[in-house]
């Protein structure tokens, strides 16, 4: 396990994670990555509808969700989950795991209420970083219009002095 995550190893080991992806190979890969991280309590759903049912059945601590899948697709799924009064667990953390990294999709995912965003192919290090982010910095859910979203992160002007190429990067 990565050193920065070692203090969260006990919490990680007790997480219940739901993977919602229509591709069995991707579910298997994600499950393997979670095992490497030390997570054993893993559930799977092969489409959006069974994913919504699985949240209600297992009450996972985190959902890892694909963008493109049968109805409801990833964005529709997030809209369903984040609907207060209609869905019983509107504040479950969601990590969108997708091959679509266009800025417009990232912005839409954040607008819909996704907690974290990861691009396929994903590494155990990247997945671990997103899980630790959810554990270390849980964000309050706030009502925005007719749905819930995680409270925005505070922007930081921190720029490490390691590499001049990072001068234009904004760290959050």
Characterize the structure shown.
The structure is a single chain. The protein has 172 residues and is of the alpha/beta class. It has one domain: Response regulator (Rossmann fold, 3-Layer(aba) Sandwich). It has six helices and seven strands. It has helices at residues 9-14, 24-37, 48-58, 74-81, 103-112, 124-136, and strands at residues 16-20, 41-45, 62-66, 94-98, 116-119, 141-144, 147-150. It has a five-stranded parallel beta sheet, with helices on both faces. A two-stranded antiparallel sheet has the order 6-7. α2 links the parallel β1 and β2. α2 (24-37) crosses α6 (124-136) and α3 runs parallel beside α4 (74-81).
Question: Could you write a compact summary of the structure shown?
Answer:
By secondary structure, this protein is an alpha/beta fold. It is built from 6 helices and 7 strands, in the order H-E-H-E-H-E-H-E-H-E-H-E-E. It starts with 8 loop residues before the first helix and ends in a 22-residue tail after the last strand.
List keywords for this structure.
single chain; about 170 residues; alpha/beta; Rossmann fold; five-stranded parallel sheet; 7 strands; about 35% helix
């Amino acid at each position: 396990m990565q050193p920065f995550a070692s203090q969260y190893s006990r919490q990680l080991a007790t997480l219940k994670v739901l993977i919602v992806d229509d591709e069995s190979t991707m579910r298997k890969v994600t499950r393997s990555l979670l095992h490497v991280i030390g997570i054993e309590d893993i559930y799977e759903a092969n489409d959006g509808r069974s994913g919504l049912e699985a949240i209600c059945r297992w009450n996972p601590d985190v959902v890892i969700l694909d963008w493109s899948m049968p109805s409801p697709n990833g964005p529709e799924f997030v809209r369903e989950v984040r609907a207060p009064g209609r869905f019983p667990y509107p504040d479950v953390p969601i990590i969108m795991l997708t091959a679509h990294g266009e800025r417009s999709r990232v912005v839409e995912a954040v607008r819909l209420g996704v907690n974290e965003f990861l691009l396929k192919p994903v590494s155990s290090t990247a997945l671990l970083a997103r899980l630790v982010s959810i554990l270390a910095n849980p964000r309050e859910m706030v009502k925005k219009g007719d749905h819930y979203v995680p409270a925005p992160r505070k922007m930081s002007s921190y720029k490490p002095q390691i590499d001049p190429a990072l001068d234009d990067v904004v760290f959050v």
